[in-house]
Amino acid sequence: MAMVTVNLRAVTSWVGIARLFAIVLSCIAFSLVASTGEYKSPYGTWCMFTWCFCFAVTLVVLVLELLELYPALPISWDDFTSAFSMLAALMVFTTSVVYPSTSIGSPCSSHCAQKAVATTASCLCFLAYALEVGLTRAKPGDISSFLSTVPGLLKVFEVYVACLIFSLLDSYASEAGLQWCVAVYSICFIVTFLIIIFTIGRCLAYIPCPLEKMLVGYNALALVMYITATVLWPLYSFKDSKRPNPCNSECAWNKHLGVTFLTIFNLIAYLVDLVYSTRMVFIRTPS
């Protein structure tokens, strides 16, 4: 009969403690918001999904590490946990900004205390995930877990920002320049997402080419493509277009502005990614 091993370090280490805090704080956040019953708007639904998703996956991760069951999974566990903690930090950070700005009016009209505590819990939950990212990030020169390195974490950031861009895309079929920008977002998203999936699934080793140099080449190409999108998107989006008054969160002008800033964020991410990847591949530290 197989014996189940209990690894108490999974909950007593700093990483384990950070995960415990994330579980408790995300549970508090979605429980309080659920008690108000005011979460059925698209933004409220997104916030509830984020807290519930992060709570559930973190709990599963903690249980698998506590019972030492994760080695039986056909994935790179360190890459998976690093990618998830980065994704969770980004999702909870977004939720911590979106929820109070869309659900708490000025002045607040109902369930003010619950909403305020839920927002505070969400902000603290983000700090817990950010702490986990910091604790599990690979040390300089250590590439045993690619997604825990700076380029690996940036891959998760790039994919997440691309998802935010897709959520804001509205009208772009009228201009060829905007269509090119959407193609840039889509191509870079697909390739970067596949890199993450192949890394977690331990499939990159089967690619018959110098993988590290190929990633550097891809980062350079993605950077050039995002430079064109950074120029073309605002050029065609705001050409002969003034901001209407009033212009709320559903206003196309505001969405185009959001895409502009997110494009700049991803441009910077790909630039930093290229610099770090180049250093890891071509600049070796003396042993």
Automatic annotation (TrEMBL):
Name assigned to this protein: MYADM protein
PROSITE patterns: MARVEL
Keyword match Transmembrane helix: yes
UniProt-listed InterPro entries: Marvel, MYADM-like
Record keyword Transmembrane present: yes
Keywords: Membrane, Repeat, Transmembrane, Transmembrane helix
Residues of the MARVEL domain: 10-141, 146-282
Localization in the cell: Membrane
Membrane topology summary: Multi-pass membrane protein
GO cellular component: membrane
Positions of transmembrane segments: 12-34, 46-70, 82-100, 112-131, 177-204, 216-236, 256-276
Primary localization: membrane
Origin species: Stercorarius parasiticus
This protein's encoding gene: Myadm
